[in-house]
Amino acid sequence: MRKFVIWGSGGHAREVNWLCEEMEVRVLGFLDERPDMKGQLVNGVPVLGTLDDIEAMRHEVEIVCAGVGDPALKKRFAYDTIRSGFRIADPLIHPRVRLSRRNIVGQGSMICEGAILTDNIRIGCHVIINRGANISHDTVIDDYVTIAPGVNLAGNVTVGEGAYIGIGSSVREKCRIGCWSMIGGGAFVKGDVPDFTMAAGVPAVIKKRLDKE
Fold first, then answer.
1. 152-165 burial code (b ≥16 CB/10 A, e <16)
2. Of 65, 96, 134, 211, which alpha carbon lies 20 to 30 A from 119's?
3. What was the pLDDT predicted at 211?
4. Does 94 qualify as catalytic in the annotation?
C-alpha cells in the first residue's frame, strides 16, 4: 500500500487527506514548519514536524507537496523535498474524475472529485485542480498552478507557472494566464493576463501588479 505524508495541516491538507481516504491510500501524517503544531492531531492524523523529523521514513513514503493552495509555498516545499532526497508523490486522481486517457498529469499533482478534463490536456507538476473544475481540450497548465473549485477553462487556454485561478471563475478560449498571476473569484477572463498580475471582475480587468509588492 502507498504511504503518504502531506505538507501542510490546514484546511486544504485535510481535504487532501480526505482524497487519500477516498482512494484508500494511507496517510502517515502531516508536515508543518510551525513548532507548536508538531505532535498535534488533525482529524486523527499526527503532525510529524518537518522533513528532518521523518528522515527515517525517507525510503518508505511519498510526499505530497500540494497540501497547501499557495503556489509559492508548493514550489518551496517541492524544492525542499527533492533536495532532502524524499520521493514526490505520484498524481492523486479521485475516482469520480472524468479524464481522457490522452491527457498528461505531472508528478505531485492532484485532481479532486467532480472535475472534468476532456482531451489532450497537459498538466504540470504540483498542480491542484479542485472540485468541480471543468477544463477543455488542448489546455496547458504549468507547474504549481492552483485551480479553485468550480473553475471553467475553455479550449486552448494556457495557464503559466504558479498562477492561481479563483473559485468559480471562467477563462475564454485561447487565453493565456501569466506566470504567478491571480484571477479573482467569479471573474470572466476574455483576454490574456500578463505575468505577475491580479485580474478580477466581469469582464476581468487588471487590478494590480503583484511583482511590485
1. bbbbbbbbbbbbbb
2. 65
3. 79
4. no
